[in-house]
Amino acid sequence: MRSTAVLVLGRHENRSLIETLFNMGFAALVRETLPEALDKLRHDRFAMIVVDRSHVDVDVLEFVLNVRDIDANIPVAVVGQPAAGGQEDKILWAQPRTYLIDKLESPHRLAQYLERMLGVEMEPDS
Asked: Are 32 and 74 in contact (CB under 8 A)?
């Protein structure tokens, strides 16, 4: 059975993101720190991970690289404005199943992007 849980690295205050995931049929589990998020990933199954750059104060690249060490196949969506300089984003783009969404035009557009991402990346469980 496929998980309907989504690990969100961000803050609970981003109601728009959490409601978008809920409307898509997912349950968002929000963690605010890198260690908390990685600990949850080690112990639970998730359909995907969403990193909310505008509501988190962590090194996103470090987080994604740690995620890849734990689970090489889970889709990761990094949402928000690109990091200054762009070097971090170049490395993020090179990571498998990692998608960058520069800005949220609307919750509907985010939902469309995430559905498309999951449609391509998620295989039915056997």
From this structure: no
